[in-house]
Write a structure and sequence with these properties.
It is built from eleven helices and 14 strands. It has about 350 residues and is of the alpha/beta class. The longest helix is centred in the middle third of the chain and has 30 residues. It is globular and about 65 Å long. It binds 5-S-methyl-1-O-phosphono-5-thio-D-ribulose. The site of 5-S-methyl-1-O-phosphono-5-thio-D-ribulose (MRU) has 18 residues, from helix 2 and strand 9. 5-S-methyl-1-O-phosphono-5-thio-D-ribulose binds next to helix 2 and strand 9.
Length: about 350
């Protein structure tokens, strides 16, 4: 039982407001490019693939609002929206990938294109990005499902599920497929401080799907591994460098170090749109730093003294040496990653 968090219908963009989950399932309309930017920034929509999809539709929202009268004005609207939306969050490369794709299509249309035809072609591209993501999620799940054995204990961090994508997830797609294949296994979901994507979103999704799920505090992961409860770790990714170094939600690197200490394989599930072959290694991945209030009072309760200094990086980089494999829609890539990731990227790149 997966869900689609982003809907485009009648030239209107709607998303599930993920900041309200798990207590409220509320759809909100994003009527302007500014509201799309805010929704991405405030994590109403989040997760690398979902951010890219939402931004692609955000470009359409800009066109609907501006109603350009000729091709030049339509192209300018797309460029302006893309430039602006690209400033919302820095780490997930899917955002830039989707916006570049929209701009590429806009820039390649012939001079005779009418504003109506322009809009329809751009709309088709955004819908294709969404449709491809749905297909991609299923493929990742199919390629990774065999890793989840009968009776296994699986740990995941943050949310790489339906909510983080067009609808099927990446890391959680693997679990959904294994579940659909009839295997019984237990999932341990890290709550994922400071914004609790694991507790609020992953636990919600997996429970709805009828998968045996146990929520743990992030700092319980070592003990749970030591108790022998974890056989496999699967996480998502926000950006994978050419050498396999992977940026994902803050805390993933720590989980990976623990996994190595306990001899547990850690797999990354990520679509090709999350690969960034332009970056040789993870040191070059921009890490978003978010406001200290997320740490000192994220859910309305003050939990630290006023004026305390806070450092709040939203992502970290797990070195490729700690990753047993990267599950993509083209198959499971194992070390060494250089070359094979680049090859997959070249073979599948659509634009
Ligand atoms: O800050 P978020 O919630 O956008 O972070 C999301 C993650 O880190 C996910 O694990 C990642 O985007 C993979 S989503 C399939």
């Amino acid at each position: 039982m997966t869900c689609q968090p982003i809907i485009w219908a009648d030239r209107t963009l709607k998303i599930i407001d993920q900041t309200l989950l798990p207590t409220e399932l509320v759809w909100v309309e994003l009527p302007s490019v500014t509201t799309v930017w805010d929704a991405i920034k405030q994590l109403q929509v989040r997760g690398a693939p979902a951010i890219g999809i939402c931004a692609a539709f955000g470009v359409l929202v800009g066109l609907v609002a501006r109603k350009p009268e000729n091709l030049a004005a339509a192209q300018e609207s797309v460029s302006e929206s893309a430039r602006y939306l690209a400033t919302s969050r820095p780490t997930a490369v899917n955002l830039f990938w989707a916006l570049e794709r929209m701009e590429g299509v806009a820039g390649a249309l012939p001079a005779t294109t009418t504003p109506q035809a322009f809009f329809e072609r751009l709309e088709q591209e955004a819908l294709t990005i969404l449709a491809e993501d749905l297909e991609t999620g299923l493929s990742i799940g199919r390629f990774g499902a065999h890793l989840v054995h009968e009776g296994a204990g699986v740990l995941t961090h943050c949310n790489a599920g339906s909510l983080a994508t067009g609808g099927h997830g990446t890391a959680l797609s693997v679990l959904y497929q294994a579940h659909a294949q009839g295997r019984r296994f237990r999932v341990y979901a890290d709550e994922t401080r400071p914004l609790l994507q694991g507790a609020r979103l992953t636990a919600w999704e997996l429970q709805r799907a009828g998968i045996d799920t146990t929520l743990i505090c992030d700092n319980a992961a070592a003990q749970v591994m030591r108790e022998g409860k974890i056989d496999l770790i699967i996480v998502g990714a926000d950006r994978v460098a050419a050498n396999g170094d992977t940026a994902n939600k803050i805390g993933t690197y720590g989980v990976a170090v623990l996994a190595e200490a306990h001899g547990i394989p850690l797999y990354v599930a990520a679509p090709v749109s999350t690969l960034d072959p332009a970056l040789a290694d993870g040191d070059q991945i921009p890490i978003e730093e978010r406001g200290g209030e997320e740490v000192t009072g994220g859910f309305g309760k003050v939990t630290a003294p006023a004026g305390i200094k806070v450092y709040n990086p939203a992502f970290d980089v797990t070195p490729a040496s700690l990753i047993a494999g990267i599950i993509t829609e083209c198959g499971v890539v194992t070390p060494p990653y250089e070359g094979s990731l680049l090859q997959i990227f070249r073979n599948t790149r659509k634009t």
